[in-house]
Structures are given as C-alpha cells and as structure tokens.
C-alpha cells in the first residue's frame, strides 16, 4: 500500500501498523488529510479543517513512542468531531450562525477519551441547525452531500460524520444520537454504528450555559460512525472510560458475559402500517439468514409495542423541546428550521404539563416490558426505516416529507426512549431508478450489551461486505 492509500485502512488495520511502529502516526494522519482535501470539496462534510493541529499532534505521538512511551489503543487514528460537541479552542456552533463564536473552554468527555486513546482530530463535521434534522444543511456552513450521490440525503444530524468516514476522511467519525442521529447517517451512507445505551458514554459540553432537559439527558448519547463493525469493538472501550463531569455515567466493561447456548434473536418486519419496500424486505432476509448461518437462533416474533413506545417518547421529547428550546429556535434559527419544527409539532403533538410528567413516568413501564422480553431474546432484528433513504430536503416538504423522514422511524427513537443500545449496519446494496444506495437494518440489544449488537453487525458485514469499496469505485479517483 502506498502512502497515498493509507486512508483506506480501517482503524483496526491502521493501529496494527502504528502501534507496532511499521507506520508513523504522522504518515497515517497525513494520508487522511490529503484524502480530506481531495474529497471534501464535493461533499462539505468537514467544515473546519484542523490539518495543522493534527500533524503537530501526530508528530508528538511519534516522538513520545520513540522515547519509549506506551501507545494507546487508537494510536495515530485520524478522527473527526461533530461541531455540536466541545473541542477546546474551537467553536461549538451546532450549525447556528448565532453560536459561531461560542469557543469551547475545554474538551468534552468523548473528545478527551478519544485523544487519551491516541486518536488525532483532523477536522470538524457538519450538522443541521440545533442538530435536530435527519438531513444536514445550515446557513452557517451549507449543505453536506452524500458520497453515493446527490439523490440521497447524507442523513442527520451527524450527516457530516457519516459522509466523511465513508468517503475515507478519517477512520472514525464522532456523532451523537437523540432520536437516530448516529443511525440515520449510517443508513444513508452505508456505514456501521452502534447507538450506545443510557449512561454508557460520558457526555457534557463545558461551553453550555444551562443543563439540558431531563429527556434530552436520558435520550441523547455519544458514539462513533465507522466503516467496519470491528472498528467499533476497537474504539468503543476507549469511549466508555469514566469522566467525573458526567455524574450519571455507568462504568460497565465493554464486553459482557457470554450467553448460555445459542443467542436468540427476535426477528420482525412489522412496519405498523407503513409499506415495507421490497429492497428493505430483501435486506432483512439477508440479515436473518446470515445470523442463522452464524449460529444465532432467529425467531419471527414481535417485541413489545414499538409504535406506542416510540411515538410516546418522541411526543414527550417534543413537549420538552417546546418548553425549553422553542424560544431559542425562534430567535436564532433560520426560516427553514422554524418551519420544520412547526411540522414536527404537527407530526408529534407535544405532550406537556401533567401529561408530560405522566409519560416520563411511563417510560419505566416500556423499558420494563423490553427488559423482560429481552430475557428470552437478547437481540431484536428489525427494519431501521421501512423504505430506502430519502432525498435531500425531504423534511422541508411539509407534513408528507416529515412523515417519511421521521414519522415512520419508530424503531429509531423508541430505542432512545428505552435507553437501549442499537446497531445499524448495511445488509444490501440496492440498485434503484435514482441510483445505487445501501440499505441498513437495526439490531437492538439488552441494556449494557452493545458488544452483542456489534457482534451481530459483524456477522452480517461478513456476508454483505463493507460498503466503502463499492462506494470508492463509484466515486472514482477524483472523489
């Protein structure tokens, strides 16, 4: 492999070279920076170039290693950080013009954990305004494009992260997820992710002036978008390191105890009245058959009411948003985001007042039902979306657009309300009239068992392959 091709390596393959000394951190980072400069102009995935800082840090890592210092598990791995999380000395704009000069006084826990593990931040990735769309565009940095083509949204809100990592800009991409913001970009771009469960990854922004609402605290999580499932096993143990600034972090090990006998998987194609697209149907069949071949015991059985749980959870979140965030959106948001929120409130009528407190209390009922169900079925294989990923700006097209983008995504935000981990992995490359695009499915897991979801994603990936290779062939050498 030539120097210019190093960016193609997964984080797992890259660290085997950097930690052994066969490859310098500087060369690893330089190759990713060159790829960023080649590919990003057509994508606008990275909106702050940190090349100079990255190379300086990579050289420092090389010097430390030469002097006998031990290397971290992510030694020399180029990563990107989403612009809604604090990186010391840089703006945490969240895609909002009014926040463009909010400079972070310190690193967020996830940034600190990545850097403590030896990762090198090469750039900051785009997000929609207030990180509250399943698409990525904003007046401050503009639109992010999907490397598969402009017929597909890059997803959101971690759309810049998903686009960047699949284009080869960094081996790992940081993102976060309050209703699907890791999994939407993974599905849009053909990447792999796991939404961690509640309390798994420490979170806090030192730049924030007030604490987030209780539902935002309990539904939002930090994570990574990758090109391979193995990279999640490599990197997530570093992400879950404790940080005292998150008082609700739970210090559990990454790998849990093995299950007795074959792992039972609940398999469902239920889409609650939404039409299941034939390509999604085929992707689910492939995932099911792969897991059976891998020794899982897959049974077609419906989990507890996903639709009621998901809709209740998102309506409750909208009630909290209406109370705590709407004034900020009205004051600092563009007309586009204000209009989208007007439709959000129609699609998900906000639960407020006494009923909001009742539904927040009922969250434990839903979580208990799932906890009991998952005693028998530790994993649940389901659609992520019932149809292939939508086009850019679909959520600006009124009630019908928002319904297609978020209304049908109950398998996504139900997991946030429940606090359960959920992996998202491509199971098919579809050839559609508008062009080729990946089809991802979801694997939910028991609380604290992200590792089991990632194992299942790895099994599916072993049959389907990583989507980066066909994507890079499609992109061509000019990106």
From TrEMBL:
| Entry keyword Ligase | yes
GO MF = hydrolase activity; ligase activity; transferase activity
- Its domain of life? Bacteria
Q: Does the keyword Electron transport apply?
A: no
Q: Which SUPFAM superfamilies match?
A: Amidase signature (AS) enzymes (SSF75304)
List keywords of the entry alphabetically: Hydrolase, Ligase, Transferase
Q: Which Pfam families match?
A: Amidase
Root EC class: ligase
Domain Amidase: from-to ranges: 27-452
Q: Which InterPro entries did the record assign? A: Amidase_dom (IPR023631), AS_sf (IPR036928)
Q: EC number(s) for this protein?
A: 6.3.5.-
Which NCBIfam families does the entry link to? PRK07487.1 (NF005687)
**What is the name of the protein in this document?**
Glutamyl-tRNA(Gln) amidotransferase subunit A
Q: Whose protein is this, by species? A: Ruegeria denitrificans
């Amino acid at each position: 492999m030539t120097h210019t091709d190093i960016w193609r390596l997964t984080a797992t393959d890259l660290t085997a070279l950097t930690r052994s000394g066969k490859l310098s951190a500087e060369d690893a980072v330089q190759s990713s920076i060159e790829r960023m400069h080649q590919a990003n102009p057509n994508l606008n995935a990275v909106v702050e170039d940190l090349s100079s800082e990255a190379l300086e840090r990579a050289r420092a890592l090389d010097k430390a290693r030469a002097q006998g210092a031990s290397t971290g598990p992510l030694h020399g791995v180029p990563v990107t950080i989403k612009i809604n999380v604090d990186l010391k000395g840089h703006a945490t704009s969240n895609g909002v013009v009014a926040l463009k000069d909010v400079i972070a006084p310190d690193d967020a826990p996830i940034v600190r954990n990545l850097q403590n593990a030896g990762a090198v931040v090469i750039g900051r990735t785009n997000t929609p305004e207030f990180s509250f769309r399943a698409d990525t565009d904003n007046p401050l940095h503009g639109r992010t494009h999907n490397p598969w083509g402009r017929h597909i949204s890059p997803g959101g809100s971690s759309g810049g992260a998903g686009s960047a990592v699949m284009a080869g800009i960094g081996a790992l991409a940081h993102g976060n997820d309050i209703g699907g913001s890791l999994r939407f970009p993974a599905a849009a771009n053909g990447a792999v992710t796991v939404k961690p469960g509640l309390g798994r990854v420490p979170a806090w922004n030192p730049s924030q002036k007030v604490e987030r609402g209780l539902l935002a605290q309990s539904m939002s999580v930090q994570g990574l978008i990758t090109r391979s499932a193995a990279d999640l096993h490599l990197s997530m143990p570093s992400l879950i390191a404790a940080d005292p600034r998150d008082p609700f972090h739970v210090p559990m090990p990454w790998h849990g105890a093995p299950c007795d006998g074959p792992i039972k998987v609940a398999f469902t194609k239920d889409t609650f009245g939404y039409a299941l697209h034939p390509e999604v149907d085929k992707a689910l069949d492939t995932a099911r058959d792969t897991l059976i071949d891998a020794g899982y015991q897959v049974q077609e059985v419906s989990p507890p009411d996903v639709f009621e749980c998901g809709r209740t959870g998102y309506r409750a979140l909208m009630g909290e948003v209406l109370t705590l965030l709407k004034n900020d959106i009205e004051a600092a948001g563009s007309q586009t985001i204000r209009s989208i929120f007007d439709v959000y409130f129609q699609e998900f009528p906000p639960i407020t007042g006494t009923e909001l407190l009742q539904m927040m209390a009922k969250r434990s009922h839903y979580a208990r039902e799932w906890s009991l169900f998952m005693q028998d079925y530790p994993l649940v294989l389901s659609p992520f979306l019932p149809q292939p990923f939508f086009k850019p700006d679909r959520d600006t097209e009124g009630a019908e657009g928002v319904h297609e983008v978020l209304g049908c995504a109950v398998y996504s935000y139900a997991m946030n309300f429940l606090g359960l981990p959920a992996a998202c992995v491509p199971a098919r490359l579809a050839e559609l009239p508008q062009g080729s695009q990946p089809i991802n499915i979801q694997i939910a897991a028991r609380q604290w068992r992200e590792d089991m979801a990632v194992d299942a994603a790895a099994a599916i990936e072993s049959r389907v392959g990583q989507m980066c290779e066909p994507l890079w062939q499609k992109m061509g050498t000019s990106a």
